[in-house]
Amino acid sequence: MADIQGSYDDLFTPVPNTLAGLLDDGDAGASVAVFVDGEPVVDVWGGFADADRTIPWQRDTITNVWSVTKTMTALCALVLADRGELDLAAPVGRYWPEFATAGKENVLVRHLLGHTAGLPDWDGPIEDLYDWPSATARLAAQAPQWEPGNTAGYHSLTQGFLVGEVVRRITGRSLGKFFAEQVAGPLSADFHIGLPAEHDHRVALTVPPPSQDEDYAASAPGNSASPTTGKAVRVRDGNSVAWRRAQIPAASGFGNARSVALAQSVLACKGAVRGVRLLSQAGCDRAREEQFSGEDRRLGMPVRWGLGYGLFGNTFGWGGWGGSLVMIDPEDRMTMAYVTNQMREPADDNRGLELVMAAYDGLKGLRA
Q: Taking Cα atoms as reference points, which of 146, 342, 24 lies closest to residue 4?
């Protein structure tokens, strides 16, 4: 059995055992954290940080979590809304006047968070993702593909720029800087949107699925085509220095399971963790306000969208390309995060669900 490092409550032994099984099945490396009442009951890791399996995954290893980054971007918007600085029901143009053109005058901020704004596709070159002014200007000039608010289509790359530019217009700070100063810093969460060079030595590069190489490209679950009309993002793009330095707040966040679970535990614990209050109870509840329920045009499957989070029964959260996942359960005050550098094909990937189920096995004993 794979060697698992870290610590865990004995009641939650199924979680590290499940992680060991995934590593035994061929995964390179990963970390898993379960927080209850804002404190870790599982904080484990194992495997390797490189495809050649020569560098052991360490306590402070971080990796690209892809679309799990969206939950951090959403948290920033919820913080601003809770402070009264952002009206989620206001037109985006109130904060970003250049956006209110080409039929987007009635796009509301909540449409951006709920994937209903009608701007799901990145139609530019990959290189423009690294240039914030260029990326946001491109989106501001686009016309929506449907009547905003009427239906949903997963804004896989665009959501972060859209929400991030609203944050920047309000605060005068980039999304990455606002997150660092207002969320990660106060919580001491080791998560970064726009990774400084001094952290490069800790990064576990993404490993493509078996039988694939670094040209493996992003596609929607259950959809063989890329969800974007421009060039699809490839593994090699995500492994580049340019990607790490850029702020792509829908997809370029770097962290580990501990930092993801810690930050998102704010929403499981009525807005405060370890004496740090980021949100009121009402501010937390906003995350679960349903914006859309039905088949998502880009994902090709039924989805319920809240404000920046997917809704799943009483829980909410989201996953990233390749397998990373965060799940938040306010009723049980539990957050589970799984962060891996090992991709699997989406149709064959149930790792996150297996770990969520293992966490609930532990929770039953804890609450007994």
A: 24
Q: Where are the domains of the chain?
A: 4-367
How many angstroms separate the CA atoms of 326 and 301, rounded?
A: 19
CA–CA dist 213, 224 (Å, integer): 17
Separation CA 180–CA 249 (nearest Å): 12
pLDDT digits (tens, 9 = 90+) for 309-352: 999 999 999 999 999 999 999 999 999 999 999 999 888 899 99
Which is catalytic among the residues 67, 219, 259, 265? 67
Q: Kindly report the backbone phi and psi dihedral angles of residue 296, in degrees, each rounded to the nearest multiple of 5, phi listed first.
A: -75, 130
pTM of the prediction?
Answer: 0.96
4-367: CATH architecture: 3-Layer(aba) Sandwich (3.40)
Q: What integer pLDDT is reported at residue 45 of this predicted model?
A: 98
Distance CA 157, CA 252 (A): 10
Contact 81, 90 (CB under 8 A): no
**Where are the extended beta strands (E) located within 60-198?**
62-64, 192-193
The answer to whether 67 is a known catalytic residue is: yes
